[in-house]
Amino acid sequence: AAPRHHPTHPALLFASAPPKEALSGEKARLGDLQRLLRMRQQSMIGQVAALYPVKVFHDLPHGRNLNSNTNGAHRSLSEENGTLPEENGTHLLNVIKLPQIHALTFLGWQIGKQRRKQNDICEKDLQRSAAVLGYAAHAILLIASYLHVPLRYPLHFGGSRSYVSDCLPSAETASIASAERTCINMTDPKLTVYPLFVECQEDDPTKASYAIYLLHKDTEQLLNYIGAESSGRRVFDNLQELIRIIQSDEYVYS
Amino acid sequence: MKPPASSAAAAGDKGGGVDPSLPRFKCQECQRALVVVGVESFTDKLPAHAVSGMNVSSVQGSVMGASRMDNSYVVLSKQNRSHSHGIPPRPPSAGIPRAEPNQPTRAMEGSYIVLPPAAASIYKTSASEGGGAQLSPTSMNPGSPLPGNNFHSSVTVLKRAFEIATSQTQIEQPLCLDCMRLLSDKMEKEIEDVNTDNKAYEACLQRLEQETYNILSETDFQKERQKIEEEEKKLKAAIEEAEKQYSEICSEMKCLETKSKQFEELEERYCHDLNSFQFQWISHQEERDAVLAKIEVSQVHLELLKRTNVLNDAFYISHDGVIGTINNFRLGRLPNVQVEWDEINAAWGQAALLLHTMAQYFFPKFEYRIKIHPMGSYPKVTDINQNTYELFGPVNLFWSTRFDKAMTWFLTCLQEFADFAVSLDKENNVPPDKSLKLPYKIEGDKVGSYTIFLSFNKLDNWTKALKYMLCNLKWVLYWFIGNTSFAPPSGSLHVAQSSKG
């Protein structure tokens, strides 16, 4: 026989049971609320995209009019990569693809690899790439906070000197801490920070390469959160895709 | 009860001091080895073919010549021949006998039964027992050697003797002295018990004989019988009534059992229905709770986002004591607070990006003459003459004209944008009291009477100038947030929400 632990008649229980209409009403309310929330997220992330049209200008000879060719071109991270004239400036997504700092985009390539003879140009390339990566880190940080997603690899925004954290085993952390004090975030001894920049061309780019890889993993995490797949190994392609999906109608009404 | 020859021989070997020709038996109670001595004196009772070649004196000598006797001896003498149930008395040889000087001293193991010549009468078999063989005494001298006397004849004699003893006593023979004593004690106790029972029976008989019987007369007997018969009839009637009631109750029970089964089935179905309903109800409640929890989380998140402004969030301007901060990067330094150039550069980068974003938003309406180039921590400023200056350090504290010019042009750009904001307010008919008004007046390189130059300036004054500049930038930012669609109006969102609800 079935367990007899409820002597109450079902008819009496129906009185206290929430009707299905009430539940469907709650579900409808939740749907509306989530739509409003997504609209708000869409709007705010749109502002983040608008905040970083980021034209990074090359040094030009004195007297050259920078204003002549810009025509107020206003490109955001979410827009397709348009190539502005070389002398005027470069869109954020193109900066990372510049030949002299192309290595920053991919994990296996050297960062800030010298492609030109002059040292000053190389230094400017490093500055430019560090700035772009810093802005990307800031954008990802803002998007993650608006989507309410705790990043797997926390970001520490510091302009052109931004960092990505990664958890390491305590023994390894201890050995790294003893070897290189600057690399350890003192607030959490288990977190090791990796720079999203290279100080100078003589520096070892391995840590920066790993930092870019972790930044890519963060963008991948955000893409997965909204139900999309990562499109390759480029941070900026993923970031562009993330903003495109969020700004589409399917994000609000999915 | 067959004594195997091998075991007898083995016992002899093991003993080391016992003649191997002696027949050996086991006590039927404790299974200890027994050696029987003095068999040869009775061989004259046996037929000639069964007589062994071993004389008595040699056997006697072998037994009596032992220096130490470890086990018991049973000597069947004239006196105890007739005692079939009693235990024979311990013979004088049962102790430790005196050793004769000419005999070798040997240890004797196992029990011994010494049969003196007078005990031969028990071996006389009748025609019925012995199968017609009559054992008669011979005139042979016991001391002389017996050519026909062998081991087999000795065993036969003993075997026969023990069979007779067994049939007489109903107890397996042979027994050692210890076992005999135990058996004797047991039998005496049994005799005592039987005697006690006899006495009890006799007492009972006497008591019965003394009792007087009250014999009924014929009439009384008939009355008594009639009375009993009537009582029997009544009881039979009562039994019939009880049986009738029993059959009625049985049929009623069957009916009730059927009903009970129906009720049990009904109850079981009810319990199943109840459980399934409750399961549905609980899952429904859980689903509802989950939906409500999601609603609560979404509500909190939405409220948080509604209160958040992207520009204010991305460029949070505040202060850390005397030093102004943007996005928690300190802009400025004091003699006692050595702020790293990396932090100052990052702060300038954020300020440059903010002003550039606001200026770019109103372009071309706002004549963006002084260009700001945000590039992370390495911003630059291009003046109206197209000269570009670096807005980042490290720089020489005594001679940093390019950095000073960059800061001155940044300040000029901020002032121009503030003027544009005021003109826009006038255009939109905003009352003068609600129009933008910078808290610290900007005049050339000065902000609220403090120069922004780093060269030949006190760090305290430079830091104060930067703090005032950030304060002005914050006011411009608030004006921008309030007057542009860069941030979506929260009012429309609220209306949409209320209409949905």
Automatic annotation (TrEMBL), chain A:
PANTHER family: UV RADIATION RESISTANCE-ASSOCIATED GENE PROTEIN. It comes from the Eukaryota. It comes from Oryza sativa subsp. japonica. This is Os05g0490500 protein.
TrEMBL record, chain B:
Residues 305-480 form the Atg6 BARA domain. This is Beclin-1, putative, expressed. Residues 191-259 form a coiled coil. It holds the Pfam family APG6. Residues 174-302 form the Atg6/beclin coiled-coil domain. Belongs to the beclin family. One of its GO terms (biological process) is mitophagy. Keywords: Coiled coil. The keyword Coiled coil applies. It comes from Oryza sativa subsp. japonica. One of its GO terms (cellular component) is phosphatidylinositol 3-kinase complex, class III, type I. GO terms for molecular function: phosphatidylinositol 3-kinase binding; protein-macromolecule adaptor activity. The keyword Coiled coil applies. PANTHER family: BECLIN 1 (PTHR12768), BECLIN-1 (PTHR12768:SF4). InterPro entries: Atg6/Beclin (IPR007243), Atg6/Beclin_C_sf (IPR038274), Atg6/beclin_CC (IPR041691), Atg6_BARA (IPR040455). Residues 80-104 are annotated as: Disordered.
